[in-house]
Amino acid sequence: MTEILITLGIGLVAGVLGGIFGVGGGVLIVPALVLILHASQHSATGTSLGALLPPVGLLGALEYYRHGEINLMWSLCLGLGLLIGAYFGAVIALNYISGLLLRRLFAIFLILVSVRMLFGK
After folding, report:
1. CA separation (Å) from 103 to 28, 39, 46, 100?
2. How sure is the predictor about 115, in pLDDT bands with cuts at 50, 70 and 90?
């Protein structure tokens, strides 16, 4: 039961921050599953993808749409790219990258994104 409550809490925090910043899966959910629930990197990634299947972002997207803050063409293109890219990313991660290497690559990715966001224009 504790694990379920923690997972619901992670989802709630990721949902709120996703609604604010537009992030969720990779930046919030995956690290939380690995660091708090001690999931493997592969399992955390797969679980995050499973949770992010439609309609998770529907209500948040509707609110942004009501305020005229969604570019529908970009959203559709991003969605198509995510659909195709997630498949190939999963094939690569599960068949060619160890859990340890995947975790390290993910950490490097987060550092690079953080530095770029912090110091970029």
Report:
1. 14, 11, 13, 5
2. very high
Q: What is the number of structural domains in the chain?
A: 1
* C-alpha span between 86 and 92 (Å, rounded): 10
Lookup: tokens for 45: 């990634």
Residue 79 CB coordination number (10 Å)? 11
| Model pLDDT, residue 25 | 67
Give residue-wise pLDDT tens across range 47-95: 888 887 766 678 888 888 899 888 888 888 777 887 898 889 889 999 9
* Cβ–Cβ under 8 Å, residues 41 and 103: yes
The answer to whether 27 touches 12, Cβ cutoff 8 Å, is no
What domain range is 15 assigned to?
Answer: 2-119
**Are the beta carbons of 33 and 43 closer than 8 angstroms?**
yes
